[in-house]
Write a structure and sequence with these properties.
The chain has 248 residues and is of the alpha/beta class. The protein has seven helices and nine strands.
Length: 248
């Protein structure tokens, strides 16, 4: 049910500061919990799954964001390798995905994030993979690890646009996550999040509170049915499905 206009508001400067500080504190608290549990060897995947959803839910409550889901995700526990390819128009794409979708979802992270103190180590311990495409030996090792993680039940989340869209319209797709899908013979799950760009527009700190977004889940695409040289066709098919989900 749509949120009424009276519940939607632009955050004041004081509220923006509160959202940012609250988000940092929530993230830090979950990171420290992961670190000490890992040190005591009391960290497992099920707990990390609860933490990612708890962290995501807390961030969404800070901006009073409501989430509706359209469509149904596949059974991620069927032994196949899965990669969610999602639109990217806000920093909130990731927490919304964690809340809306089932399974042990882990974001395919940029290597730069691992350099951030506390956060980087937490992400490694929580099984967030990264692929370094600039160094071949490292890329092969990262790819082998990502495939092993997917075979053990991890569902990767990636944004084929690579950067956030200011308008919410689809940007050109990059090839990296499609190479990964082909290399791991993964099943691609196309996902589009409508209205997310209004919550926190790209490259701004203008929070809009009380927004409602909808997560649209499309029919899966089996990358194993595409030859390596058919990468452009795989990209085009995925883009077409995501654009349809987005309503473009």
């Amino acid at each position: 049910m749509p949120v009424s206009a009276s519940l939607t508001e632009s955050a004041t400067l004081l509220r923006r500061i509160g959202v940012v500080v609250g988000s940092v504190l929530v993230t830090l608290a979950y990171c420290l919990d992961v670190l000490w549990r890992a040190a005591l060897r009391r960290l497992d995947r099920a707990r990390v799954d609860r933490y990612t959803r708890g962290w995501a839910g807390a961030l969404l409550r800070l901006v009073r964001l409501e989430v509706a889901v359209v469509g149904r995700a596949p059974d991620f526990s069927d032994g196949r390798r899965y990669i969610i390819l999602c639109t990217h128009a806000s920093h909130y794409d990731i927490p919304v995905s964690f809340v809306a979708l089932p399974g042990s979802i882990r974001m395919l992270a940029k290597s730069e994030l691992y350099r951030i103190p506390v956060l980087g180590l937490t992400m490694r311990l929580a099984e967030f993979p990264s692929i370094n495409r600039h160094k071949r030996d490292q890329a092969l090792a990262d790819l082998a690890r990502a495939r092993q993680m997917m075979e053990s039940g991890i569902v990767l989340w990636a944004a084929p646009e690579g950067t956030r869209s200011r308008s919410g319209e689809l940007l050109p797709f990059k090839k990296g996550c499609f190479h990964l899908a082909l290399d791991t013979e993964a099943v691609i799950v196309p996902v589009a999040i409508r209205g997310i760009h209004k919550v926190l527009p790209a490259r701004s700190w203008r929070f809009n509170l009380g927004q409602q977004v909808s997560v649209h889940i499309g029919e899966p695409i089996d990358a194993a049915s595409y030859a390596r040289e058919a990468l452009p066709e795989l990209m085009a098919e995925t883009r077409q499905r995501i654009a349809a989900l987005l309503g473009e």
